[in-house]
Amino acid sequence: MNFRRLGGSGLKVSEISLGSWLTYGGYVERENAVKAIQTAYGLGINFFDTANVYEQGAAEILLGETIRAFPRESYVLATKAFWPMGEGPNDRGLSRKHVIEQCNASLKRLGVDYVDIFYCHRHDPETPLYETLRAIDDLVRQGKVLYVGVSEWTAAQMAEGLAVADRYLLDRIVVNQPIYNMFERYIEKEVIPFSERNGIGQVVFSPLAQGLLTGKYKSLDDLPEGSRAAKLEWMRKGVTEEKLAKVVALSQIAEELDITVGQLALAWILRQTNVASALFGASNPEQVIQNVKAAGIVLDQDVLERIEQILA
């Protein structure tokens, strides 16, 4: 496994990291989930990602129970807050009340004294940035959080966050977690250039486009039984004939390189030096084993140009 610095911080995370959205505590059987986490750790993944809202805390509980067997200093753990965790008016967002309460609840579910990264799971237009960043800074000073992160924030929103942090001497944002894959590339225009200038690293989610870039979907009329696209209607909408045709073309390149199309997709993401880690979800240990092999793969310029022609 290769490791990269997280933005301008001194923290080093594995190029490939394991998440728990839609998987742990959800439709993936507990035994497979536990084995996937254990396999990831055994193969050198030191970065595990979750959130309070994933299965309303169940993902945190399962992840916490599993990683408890590992030395705490040996892994990097991230969680988040923003999305609703209840029916009350203060059970959502990034108010000081919600941030503090949810961080403490996450620590309890995870069974740890601190998380390495605490993300603002989205931007909250209803809460002043100072209130949110001051609350997280207090958690940092208490030793409950080590690094400040955001997810799916625009360059302008991150710029405002950094300005507030610098004005009031608060801990700065060092990581952003956006969606990024061969079919979702919006961060290339503004987010990555801004982040490179300001010491913010990207930990990207959905690097395999929810499984589309693994090549397992061959036809809209023949979705694999038990797959997420077969179970979830919103995911089926993202599977189009045009994308499937591009995956077929990408698979030909992968075959020439003697790698899988999924490994090609991950290596393509890691060509971006501003990306610290590609975060994937695994339904079983075999998926972890395959994805980890993408670490260290360097794609030649001619391969990158061929990929660009296909995606264009």
Automatic annotation (TrEMBL):
Residues 15-311 form the NADP-dependent oxidoreductase domain. Pfam families: Aldo_ket_red (PF00248). Keywords: NADP, Oxidoreductase. SUPFAM superfamilies: NAD(P)-linked oxidoreductase. It comes from the Bacteria. Belongs to the shaker potassium channel beta subunit family. PANTHER family: HYPERKINETIC, ISOFORM M. This is Aldo/keto reductase family protein. It comes from Paenibacillus oenotherae.
